[in-house]
Automatic annotation (TrEMBL):
Protein's UniProt keywords contain Ribosomal protein: no
Species annotation: Streptomyces glomeratus
Family per similarity comment: Belongs to the enoyl-CoA hydratase/isomerase family.
Keyword Lyase among record annotations: yes
Pfam families assigned: ECH_1
InterPro entries: ClpP/crotonase-like_dom_sf, Enoyl-CoA_hydra/iso
Protein name: Enoyl-CoA hydratase family protein
Keywords tagged on the record: Lipid metabolism, Lyase
């Protein structure tokens, strides 16, 4: 598979949207928009009844490309914000259920993707977290709150710690935890079970379930993004990024 975003249909009713941006799947702005387009397109296909969101490489997603943001400054941040917003919304609003197949690290933007999916299958080595405060950023607490209870979400957010797939399964947000080599198969197994249902009824079910969500994830995440931009324009973000990886500040 060429680097980027690809879509395949390995079996009837199931589309796999796979991301591959070596070395760590930290997506550039164009990558987020490409992912959004691929997920929306798969969901609109009348032959598709379930989408599997997967990734190649060591980890599921490491968030945005910080180097791109630093190189482009404010324009880079605006692009990343808009790209993430579109990709997260595309997963949430996909016309059919989305199963996230998560391996290795699921950080930053990865939380936005997994948190907006309908179901998550994870490998035993998967870890989930928002290291945003260590990287001069904010955001995706909206989506982490869909994976863990409120006080744990706050603790993970403030400390930049991660939670394991097993811990998330204990909280009910991960459907299955499997060995890494069985991840894609396990995700396809769940997708196959979902895709066995009537396609039109599945689309109605997805719309109905989204309609009863207690939090409007689009509005909530957009609110968070305002503080991300404030951190950037005030200089706080750059100050923190300059010390990232250099020990105590």
């Amino acid at each position: 598979m060429l680097m980027g975003v690809s879509t395949s249909c390995p079996e009837k009713g199931v589309a796999v949207v796979a991301v591959d941006f070596p070395p760590v799947n930290a997506l550039p702005v164009t990558g987020w928009f490409s992912l959004a387009d691929a997920v929306r397109s798969a969901g609109r296909d009348p032959q598709v009844r379930c989408v599997v969101l997967a990734a190649e490489g060591r980890g599921f997603n490491a968030g945005v490309d910080i180097k791109e943001i630093r190189a482009k400054g404010g324009r880079g941040l605006i692009g990343a914000n808009r790209g993430c917003f579109e990709a997260f919304a595309a997963v949430y609003e996909c016309e059919v259920p989305v199963v996230a197949a998560v391996q290795g690290f699921c950080l930053g933007g990865g939380i936005g993707l997994a948190g907006n999916a309908d179901a998550i299958v994870a490998s035993e080595d998967a870890v989930f977290g928002l290291p945003e405060l260590e990287r001069g950023a904010l955001g995706a607490a909206t989506h982490l709150a869909r994976l863990v209870p409120p006080h744990l979400m706050r603790t993970l957010y403030y400390t930049s710690r991660t939670a394991t797939a097993a811990e998330l399964r204990a909280h009910g947000s991960v459907w299955r935890v499997v060995p890494r080599d069985g991840l894609r198969g396990a995700a396809l197994e769940l997708a196959r079970e979902i895709a066995a249902k009537d396609g039109e009824l599945l689309r109605l079910a997805k719309a109905a379930i989204n309609g009863i969500d207690p939090v409007d994830v689009r509005r909530s995440y957009r609110f968070e993004q305002g503080f991300t931009f404030e951190a950037q324009t005030s200089g706080v973000a750059d100050r923190v990024r300059d010390t990232f990886g250099k020990g105590d500040t």
